[in-house]
Structure of IclR family transcriptional regulator:
Amino acid sequence: MQRALRLLDHLAGGGNARNLSETARLLDITRPTLARLLDTLEYERVVERLPEGGGYRLGLRFLGLAATALASRDLLRLAQPVLAGLAAELGLSAYLTVLSGGETLYLLREMPDTPLVSNIRLGSRVAAHLTAPGRMLLAHRPAEARRALLGPEPLAAATGRSVTTHAGLDRLLAEDRARGLAWSRAAYEAGIDACAVAILGGAGEAMAAISVAGPSAQFGTARAAPARVEQALRDAARDLSRLMGGPADGPKDGPMDGSMDGPKDGPAEGSMTDGAGVAATGEGGAA
């Protein structure tokens, strides 16, 4: 690994490894080792050959990884004041998350001016289909990709109401994407509700999600009324998506759920409808 990193540093600094013997001497490795490294990195598209025997340069895969890392740093910097604004406006905890394999990874958190007891911490990882932001990220991926990320059935469950089949999850995610956001009602953490929306990148991909969470009773107050929560999240997601080079109109706005209307064809498998008519799922109670 150290040898590969030295080689990549050399190429990033303007070297081309055209002369293998000279490059090996500079990097303090043997010529056969250098040749094997270049073959492996070329196969993985981390480096690519220059035409007419001109040596090597960094490949598209490496550049893509670098661009993603830089974008992630920008996203963290830009998202922090947005999350702080949401927490102050709604009195709820606000989170920034990304998809890491089949898990939701929590990168940022801003706390409100009211106490909130939650198991979700910075760096927490939770099975993606069990969280509201994870569902929004999964909803923007093809069904086959979701299956590969989440693995075989039965899917992990947080409660007896959790969706444990891919077919049931597919129906639920279709509803989430149609609405443009995901609601969760005291499913992953007892007494904690959450709402999430996706952040779109330059290619229209869901690169991250933001969510707010708080005590279930708090969503019945004027400060954190569902319609107000949804509008605040959509506005924040639209702003962040624009800053990250996403679509000018940000994430798609589904029908406003502030009226608490559930899907017309009824809730998806593994979900139930609460007294106000919102799909209250067992697989997304985390922030």
